[in-house]
Amino acid sequence: MHTLFNRTNELIRKIDQFIDLTAQSSLLFKLALKLYLEKRYDEFENRFISIKQIENQADAVRKDIESQLYEQTLIPESRGDVLGLLENMDYIADSAKSTMLEFSIEKPWVPENIGKGMLDLAEPVNKAVESLVYAVRAYFYDINAVKDHLHLVKFYEREADSQTEKIKRDLFAMDIDLACKTQLGGFIRRIDNLADEALQVADRLNIATIKRVV
Amino acid sequence: MAFLLYLSSGIFLGWSLGANDAANVFGSAVGSKMLKFRTAAVIGSIFIILGAGISGAGAAGTLDRLGSVNEIAGAFMVALAAAVTVFWMTRLQLPVSTSQAIVGSIIGWNFFSRSLTDMASLRGIVITWIASPVLAAFFSIVMYVAVKWILNRSKIHMLKLDIYTRIAFIVAGAFGSYSLGANNIANVMGVFLTVSPFRPLNLFLVRLSPADQLFILGGIAIAAGVASYSYRVMRTVGSGIIRLSPIAALVVVLSTSMVLFIFASEALEFWLIAHNLPSFPLVPVSSSQAVVGAVLGIGIVQGGRGINFRLVGKIASGWVTTPIMACLLSFISLFFIQNVFNMVVYNPVNYRITPEVAVKLHEENVYRPAIDLLVNVDFDDAVSFSERLKESDMGLEQEVIDRIISFSEVHPMRVNLALLDRELENNWLKSERMKTLKTLEGMEFQYKWQLYDALLAVSPAWRMKSVEPRNRSYNRILTEKLSYLYRTFAVQ
Questions:
Q1: How many A/B residue pairs have CB atoms within 8 Å?
Q2: Which end of chain A is less enclosed by CB atoms within 10 A, N or C?
Q3: Which chain B residues are Cβ-neighbours of A213 within 8 angstroms?
């Protein structure tokens, strides 16, 4: 019995760790973007390495959780939902890493007003991920609080969408190379993508919450 | 050996009860993979046997009063008719209650042997059948609301809740199995109580009465049913009336177990009476029906959405068809083996009002002048005697008729203590009662009340206590001992 409780506590710790890593990846994403736009490239590369490490760590922890849930046949009713949730959540760290990778490889030139717009966009994107992190934590501890956080995810995702539209309109109204516009448009879309990923997880979480009625 | 052969129908009935009813206790846990089948089967088997052995006597007494099957071949057929009904209805995928099957079957024997069915017992049993799902629904509503309230406030992690739920399933399953054994063992072995040749047995530090031995045997049969056949029933039970979450399933198991327990436990009855609280009759109830009630309770709290009312209707129809089918089957099969195999399926009971009986009726204040018409008239069975007493020229009330019938039952006995050697060795009787009995050695009696009066005349240790709830248990035990003496000393 003691071992059973120990193993469960260990698993709870891992799930908490995974959620923390997702939150950290989003925070580092915002920080790295800021460093890039301020042209502090060395510091940016350091942050990028941190994001890569976090993404790798999150992957490993998720796989660990997955095998432990199956091996110990825990939460048979909600196991599929929980695993799907964690897998989708993992895409957030993935997306943060791959966007920063593109910044690191392509090193795009960003006009000042577009750079400011990107930083403004990173704000609701980060908030959407943050709200999702609260919602997922609530799913495990306090099912009734999930909805309070979920509606915030939706709100910030919509906010990010409208910011994205505004920046893109400004971008394509500028008198610069079309190639440059297309490249930057891709980066703007990638930043917004983080909020979209958060919303997808939120939708899954919404259904999982309804299913988990006592 | 022959007795064991006859007992096989009871064993079969026990096996089908284990195969079907264990699913009511562990089905939702195994179906939702919260518990492994092996764990459920081991816990279920152990606690069913314990429940049957420790607390099985209460509900068995009620069945015995309903109709006392007095020939071994009859008991075999009654149990077989019930078992076939259960098996048949299960094959037709109709929910079935072993309790209803055995009651129907006993009534079939009563009809066949022209014995009277104790209407008070029957009424009590039928009321309990209706009350048990209602009570289970009430328990599940209260528990579900309480558990939901606690869980909403306690903020337990999903994984910890999972572990707690599994532990609770094991505890509730053990309690449920104990209650199932205690309540339903009467269905399996009740009809064999009167005809059992078992004698008291000293096993290490434990003394097993004949009833205990029968109940443990029946418990083992139920456990065998659990281990060998209940898996497939358990796997399908989850997709029943409504889809349940593990916590709701746990509430259902607990509610069902509580209903089975309160209608089986003599200890609880004693405790309630001691605290001046209303007690519950000890009656075998159907775990399937209790489960239906409990699940409906959850459905009601959830606003009635998703309840499969067609299935509920189908289950309710089983409440009527099962006893009728078992009764018919029992009657027909008794007729068949009596007339085709020339077997004795009942021991005819004669009734005669001798002058001694008339005096006794006087003493008991149930004598009416019209009874003089029947003095020294022989009646071959209870039904014809009862019909004669009911005729208009007698002008007797039902209660008086019942008492006259019980005082007029001819039951020749000769006190022969050699037949009770093992019982007396095992202190089956208190020393005072034993001394009294010894003074009657060799004496003969025609009526049960004569032996009882003779015992009372020598010592008050045999006196029943006044009819009050708090004396119920004492009187029941004394009645069981007297019944055992009447059976043992009976002469043909």
A1: 45
A2: N
A3: 245, 302
Burial class (CB in 10 A: 0-12, 13-18, 19+), B452: middle
| Range in A138-152, A155-169, B478-492 with the lowest mean pLDDT | B478-492
Tell me the DSSP string of B57-76: HHHHHHHHHH----SHHHHH
DSSP secondary structure, B438-466, as one string: HHTTT-EEEEHHHHHHHHHHH-GGGPPPP
Helix (H, G, I), strand (E, B) or coil at B344: coil
Averaged over A100-121, what is the pLDDT? 95
Nearest-angstrom CA–CA distance, B180 and A56: 54
Structural domain boundaries of chain A? 2-211
The answer to whether B163 contacts A5, with C-beta atoms less than 8 Å apart, is: yes
B364 and chain A in contact, CB less than 8 A: no
Nearest to A12 among B148, B155, B157 (CB): B157
Query: Å from A56 to nearest chain B CA?
Result: 25
State whether residue A212 sits within 8 Å of chain B by CB. yes
CB of B30 within 8 A of CB of B235?
Answer: yes
> Residue A70: its chain B contacts at CB < 8 A?
none
- Of A11, A77, A142, which has the smallest distance from its Cβ to B245's Cβ? A77
B 29-48 residues inside an 8 A Cβ radius of A: 32-34
Q: Which of B34, B152, B163 sits opposite A76 (nearest CB)?
A: B34
**Chain A contact set for B148 (CB, 8 A):** 214
- Whole-angstrom Cα distance, residue B90 to residue B97? 10
Query: Residue A2: exposed, middle, or buried by beta-carbon count in 10 A (0-12, 13-18, 19+)?
Result: exposed
Tokens of B447: 């009526």
A156 in contact with B at a CB cutoff of 8 Å? no
Tell me which chain A residues have a C-beta less than 8 angstroms from the C-beta of B301.
Answer: none
Q: Residue B160: its chain A contacts at CB < 8 A? A: 8, 12
DSSP E strand stretches across A120-189? none
Among candidate residues B222, B215, B238, B218, the one with its CA nearest the CA of residue B24:
B238
**Domain range A2-211, CATH architecture:** Up-down Bundle (1.20)
Please indicate whether, in this complex, the C-beta atoms of A139 and B158 are within 8 angstroms of each other: yes
Burial letters A136-160, b for 16+ CB under 10 A, else e? bbbbbbbbeebeebbebbbebbebb
Q: Which residue of B has its CA nearest to A4?
A: B163
Tokens 């109830």 label which residue? Answer: B285
Q: How far is CA B294 from CA B19, B110, B219, B284, in A?
A: 21, 34, 25, 17
Task: Provide ipTM, 2 decimals.
Answer: 0.87
Token reading at B466? 């006044």
pLDDT at A162: 96
Unique residue bearing structure tokens 């699940």: B295
Do the beta carbons of residue B141 and residue B248 sit within 8 Å? no
Neighboring chain A residues of B162 at a CB cutoff of 8 Å: 8, 74-75
Distance set, CA B276 to CA B272, B279, B342, B464, B469 (Å): 6, 9, 53, 21, 9
Opening angle at CA B253, ends B176 and A73, nearest 5: 105
Q: What single letter denotes the amino acid at residue B197?
A: P
| Contacts of range B476-480, beta carbons closer than 8 Å, 24 or more positions apart | B476/B58, B476/B61, B480/B57, B480/B61, B480/B211
CA B21 to chain centre: 16
Average pLDDT across each block of 10 residues of chain B; the chain has 492 residues. List them in order: 83 88 82 85 92 82 77 90 87 77 93 87 86 93 94 89 92 93 88 80 75 88 88 64 80 92 84 81 85 87 77 77 93 93 87 91 85 87 88 76 90 89 73 87 93 92 84 83 88 78
